[in-house]
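Deliverable D4.2, example record:
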Amino acid sequence: MMGIKKCPFVKEIKMKRMLLKKIVMSVLALASLSVFLLTSGCAANAIRMVPTDFEVVNKHHHTVSINESIGGRETNPLWTSQVSNSAFTEALSNALAKSGVFQAVIKGGGADYLLDVTILDYDQPWIGIDIDIRMKTKWELADAKTLVPVWSDTFETTYRAKLSDALIAAERLQKANEGSVRTNIKEGIRRLSLLSL
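Output generated by the structure prediction step:
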């Protein structure tokens, strides 16, 4: 008895299904890569976190040293852009020197005052057309010899990065991070300049 011949179209249908499956997998992989590229980001750049202008009322004829800031977050390359403690501290040190609010910024010992800045809260959205970042910090200035605080202030600032600032979401978030630090440091320096030291 002769065997039943297979329909010639069955093999062709199987091949088309396999090809369609490969196409779908490729599209999904490409979509995943696109989402990754749009949401993952680089760490905020300390140089771009330094304000370009300052509101300084009084310039103090004293020196200041800065303790490393705390409360920041390191950026994971697979996640969104963040502001690290070291980047914030570097930007703060450069901004204080640039503003002239103190006679000099000294690394290590020997300064007249010690400045501590703590990032208390950092409200950052994942993604958005316009990205608003709210930063709350505590600033404390102490006598370097006695370590007795002479001034303390807690305040909040907000910065908005618009779609026109950067079309790619990850880049816009990075700009928002840098802008939020710039805004906060600028306000902190303004408040320091109001003191009578």
